[in-house]
Write a structure and sequence with these properties.
Blueprint lengths: L6 E6 L11 E16 L7 H9 L4 E11 L5 H19 L6 E8 L6 H13 L6 H7 L8 E9 L2 E10 L12 E6 L5 H13 L5 E2 L9 E6 L13 H23 L7 E9 L2 H13 L1 H8 L5 H9 L11 E4 L2 E5 L2 E2 L3 H8 L3 E7 L5 E8 L3 H8 L4
Parallel strand pairs: 3-4, 7-9, 8-15, 10-14
Antiparallel strand pairs: 1-2, 2-3, 2-9, 5-6, 6-7, 10-15, 11-12, 11-14, 12-13
Helix pairs in contact: 1-2, 2-3, 5-6, 7-9
Length: 392
């Protein structure tokens, strides 16, 4: 169950998706909430992203309007106007300022918003707003997702027990590059705007920016955090024990949803945490981790439950990082595969690790003390089927 004090949610079918599936969702704060956001780094940014980037500069938001099925991406000025029109219509019906509505869209690139259908569905969408409506929101924002994704945490700070909820969607076009899908973080904590921005950046860097499904970056990626202050706690600033506790809780909740996205990675059967240690710099470690996490050969080996360590060291070697190829240690979970680049693998035990739905791969390049990680899915037959027939 998803409940956040001071927030209401709803989702309905506007007729964009087939068979009456929910495709229009609304998140509403009973009072204007402080907001921070991160958006796609793709040069091709969808109009709702451009409008959201503009509106978020005010630092306040009261409603997030999300449609699925049509991305309203690569639609130019007409698409931007569509986002403005639908946002204004929602604002008018809610009785709030237009600037307090941030839009999001997800679905097929190239199609414009079905404005008439969205307007027709809006009264029902608003009438259904409720404290219990967030499961519908999680369902209504999905596209190729196999299941809704959310996490809720309760945390006590300064003698007050507050709520953090994360609702997300994503299964494909997932690469760690700023934001990685659609995700909405909601909380009733009272937190300064500076702290909110800092917390979101650090949270995303340590959760959503660590996941890889296919190496593609969407045109619509958006992560928003809204804090309505309904808890009435003393203002949390951008440093100190209270801030640290809040950021830790935010990261934990976001990581839960991030791992769900990898687990749901369009046909995925495996979730692998790939950790690189012994690097000279964090950047070097991250380069290697990301190269392994996006390598089709490594990902297909995971799918085949094949402990083919040659693919891993070959991918590490092309990551653009200098290290001694004669000093590599490699582990699958706690099973040592290579020691100083010599095979010490017990193949049966290694295969046992890879048969699990979730496992760890650790590579030590023995060049320094820095480390980094990514969480990656495997690459399966179903991924090809889903994306080959995405529009058909």
């Amino acid at each position: 169950m998803i409940k956040i004090p001071g927030f209401l949610g709803s989702a309905v079918s506007s007729g964009v998706k087939k068979k009456g599936k929910k495709d229009l969702a609304l998140i509403f704060s009973e009072v204007p909430a402080k907001v921070a956001g991160l958006f796609t780094t793709n040069i091709v940014k969808a109009p709702p992203v451009l409008l959201g980037m503009e509106r978020i500069k005010t630092g306040m938001c009261q409603a997030v309007l999300v449609n699925s099925g049509v991305a309203n991406a690569f639609t130019g000025k007409p698409g931007y106007k569509d986002s403005v029109i639908t946002s204004k219509y929602a604002a008018d019906k809610l009785g709030i300022e237009e600037s307090l509505v941030i839009p999001s869209s997800t679905g097929i690139i190239g199609g414009r918003l079905p404005i008439a259908k969205m307007k027709k569905a809006m009264p029902e969408l608003i009438n259904q707003l409720s404290k219990d409506g967030f499961m519908n929101v999680a369902d209504g924002i999905m596209t190729t997702d196999a299941f809704p994704k959310y996490a809720v945490k309760k945390v006590s700070i300064g003698g007050k027990r507050g709520t953090i909820a994360v609702i997300g969607k994503g299964a494909g076009m997932i690469a760690p590059n700023m934001a990685t899908m659609l995700a909405y973080i909601l909380t009733d904590f009272n937190i300064s705007k500076r702290a909110l921005t800092k917390a979101l950046k650090n949270t995303v860097n340590n959760s959503f920016n660590k996941i890889i499904v296919d190496g593609d970056t969407s045109t619509n990626d958006t992560v928003l955090i809204l804090a309505n202050g309904k808890l009435g706690n003393a203002l949390i600033k951008d440093s100190g024990p209270d801030y640290n506790k809040l950021e830790k809780a935010l990261t934990e909740a976001a990581t839960e949803v991030a791992e769900m996205i990898v687990r749901d990675g369009e046909g995925a059967t495996k979730v692998a945490k790939i950790t690189v240690i012994g690097a000279r710099t964090v950047k070097d470690a991250e380069k290697i981790a990301r190269t392994l996490g996006t390598s089709p050969l490594v990902k297909t080996a995971f799918f085949g439950e094949d402990p083919n360590w040659g693919r891993i060291v070959a991918a590490a070697g092309r990551a653009g990082v200098n290290f001694d190829p004669d000093k590599i240690d490699l582990y699958f979970d706690n099973q040592k595969i290579l020691s100083n680049s010599k095979e010490v693998m017990n193949e049966k035990k290694a295969q046992t690790v890879l048969k699990k739905p979730k496992f760890e791969v650790t590579i030590n390049i023995k060049s320094g003390n820095a480390s980094s990680f990514v969480i990656a899915s495997d690459l399966t037959f179903d991924y090809i089927k889903i994306n080959a027939h995405y529009r058909t």
